[in-house]
Amino acid sequence: MARIIKFEKNDCAPCAQVSAYLDSKGISYETINPFDEPELAVKFKVRTVPTVIVLDGEEVKHRVIGFKPQELEEAVAQ
């Protein structure tokens, strides 16, 4: 099963939209604030929020930057 990580910050409207979308689909994900955990942001090359990363083991399978429902649907469907 894929691991989904969402990088976000608290006052980010698009971040809230991504959360609402994933929640409405019943998709489990881990939320990380890149400012609180900069080492993870560097590891996954996160430069903006929201960024959703779908991992298979340690391999990045998909990356969605911003609130893009169609891309999110494709990324989490696999």
TrEMBL record:
Top-level taxon: Bacteria
Domain Glutaredoxin stretches: 7-58
Xref: Pfam families: Glutaredoxin (PF00462)
Protein name per the record: Thioredoxin
Native organism: Sphingobacterium litopenaei
InterPro entries: Glutaredoxin (IPR002109), Thioredoxin-like_sf (IPR036249)
